[in-house]
Amino acid sequence: MTLTLTDQLVQWRRELHQHPELSNHEFATTERITHWLEQAGIRLLPLGLKTGVVAEIGHGEPLIALRADIDALPIEETTERPWRSQQPGVMHACGHDVHSAVMLGVALQLKQQEDTLSGRVRILFQPAEETFNGARQLIDAGALEGVQAIFGLHNAPDLPLGTLRSRAGAFYANVDRFVIRIEGKGAHAARPQEGIDSIVIASHIVTALQTLPSRMFSSLETVVLSVTRFTAGNTWNVLPQSVELEGTVRTHNGEIRAQIPHRMRSVIQGIAAGFGATAELEWTEGPPALINTPVWVDVALDVAQQSGYLAEQAESPQMGGEDFAFYLQQVPGAFVSIGSASEFGLHHAAFDPNEALIGPAVAYFTQLVPRALQIVAAQ
Question: Are the beta carbons of 166 and 349 closer than 8 angstroms?
Fold first, then answer.
């Protein structure tokens, strides 16, 4: 890959970073990616998507797919980079701009090899990964029709540059969201006995919920329950009548995932009733655990080693979520983590991935595609 292409991809990444857009609102992002692909003479599939782009390179069979995500997060950026976000309160704090730049580079490289490819590669620039509904949008639109294997990436700020990890079987977690609404009785803060203190009740519930992972399930299972929002009251001398809690649960075991909302309701309602209050749980199921296909993980790691990465199987699954899991429910494939060496982690306002990962990642996927096509053709 030439230095000129590397510089171009970094420039595109910075342009995307300066103009981030939230899930399902990636209109300008879609226009930019479409323009860059069309400039290179790459054909786009007319799938009628509101946002997002699906490109295709090569001819005939077999057909494999690659995926990048394109949406940003509602976070105010705190870096001082010249290319920092120009959109107040919105930031590419997960590195989807980097993922897009990588797959744009792969598209350009494969376009130059199009006549020698033994099949087709479909590249999905997917919207709305952060809200976990983008993959299903593309699936419903037909983006996976005929696809026999699929591959994707996420940058990993905790890994150094030049490292790549994947894992056969469960790699990312089931992701579920909950909201708890507690209804007590408001009162003057000086006369708490006249009310039912919803803040005290909510505090007991937060503490008690931590016993689910530690006391209600085996310590050998991966269960994380985090309360991330506690909303109550609007002044200093009034006990509020209502409290709302919000959070997430992450698991890898499907049976445990199914049990958790029932266990949570028992804890929540029992505590609330003991204080004379009421409480309800709203449970929203997110993407399932990302289950990599073992044979494709072996291929992905082998190609990574050949292309210069320090590549190996991850020792344990991750607790983050990834809607790439929906693709893997439809077709086999592998998802990999590539080191981005950021001091601050994903979803942090100061997240700053090292752009030096882009060139090697492009070279990696450009080598992976013909290898995967060859394997699929031989099956």
Answer: no
